[in-house]
Structure formats: C-alpha cells, structure tokens
Amino acid sequence: TGNQPASDCLFCKIVAGELPADVVASTERIVAFRDIDPKAPVHVLVVPREHHGDVSVLAAADPELLAEVVEVADRVAHDLADGQYRFIFNSGPRAGQSVFHVHGHVIAGAQLGWSPA
Ligand code: 5GP
Ligand code: ZN
Fold first, then answer.
1. Per CATH, is 10-108 categorized as 3.30.428.10?
2. Ligand 1 close to Cβ of residue 10 (< 6 A)
3. Strands, DSSP E only, in the chain?
C-alpha cells in the first residue's frame, strides 16, 4: 500500500537512516532535512516518514498528516530564517517533481523572485 516503505525510494532510505541527510527537524511522523542542491539560503524538504507518492495522494489518504507537514514547514522557516517563506509541492513530472515520495520545499532566507516556469 501507499504506507509501506518503498525499497527503491530515496526519501524512504533517508527516513530510515540508510542514507545520510542534514536533518533540521524531526517528529514522530515527519523528517525535515536540507536539500542537497539548495535554491536559496534556506532550502529544506519536509517529508512524511510514511511513503506517499505526491501531495495529491497524501491529501486524500491523511489530511491530518498534511497539516502536520505544513506546521513543521512553518516551524523550520521560523527557526532557520525570519519566518517569511515559500512552501512548494511539485506534484507530477510536468510540475518538476523528481522524487516520488511527497515532500514540500521550504524556501527562505532571501528576497524571492517569482518565475514558476
Ligand atoms: P522535486 O523536484 O521532486 O520537487 O524535489 C526533489 C528535491 O530533492 C530536489 O530539490 C533535489 O535537489 C533534492 N534531492 C535529490 N536527491 C537528494 C538527496 O540525496 N539528498 C537531499 N538532501 N536532497 C536531494
Ligand atoms: Zn518513499
């Protein structure tokens, strides 16, 4: 099912501690770690420990967990930056999704431009 660890999933391996990551926040259900290729001074990925493919699947399966993802994102933005931030889900390859384990991008720490495409 969507809740089982996917053996070939990069973020399941990070959640399991099988691959290293620079973790900045952690709860029972969520891990947040720095993006390996940051697009801003603060660029953190907020990742539910459970495997769900994208935010659309997560929203349908567990809206409370999605709400907790947003709470952790907000806390990270206040802890690591000034609390002003963008929170982005890429959902689907055409939207730029490349890792198919749901994650939100916290982008902060700079004046941000806006060029989504
Ligand atoms: P997406 O394009 O799926 O929305 O975002 C995937 C993000 O994961 C990208 O910003 C990429 O830089 C990041 N990423 C890919 N591989 C790794 C990794 O091994 N470790 C970390 N920390 N980030 C990764
Ligand atoms: Zn996964």
1. yes
2. yes
3. 23-26, 30-34, 42-48, 85-88, 104-108
CA dist., res. 1 & res. 73, Å (int): 26
Q: Give me the pLDDT at residue 7, please.
A: 78
Positions marked catalytic: 103
Ligand 1 pocket, residue 4 CB under 6 Å = no
Least confident of 5-9, 54-58, 92-96: 5-9
> Is the distance from CB of 22 to CB of 69 less than 8 angstroms?
no
What pLDDT does 4 receive? 63
Q: Where are the domains of the chain?
A: 10-108
State ipTM: 0.99
Q: Which token pair is 50?
A: 């459970």
Q: How far apart are CA 49 and CA 29, in angstroms?
A: 5
Indicate which residue's Cα is closest to atom 18 of ligand 1. 36
Residue range 37-50: mean pLDDT, rounded: 98
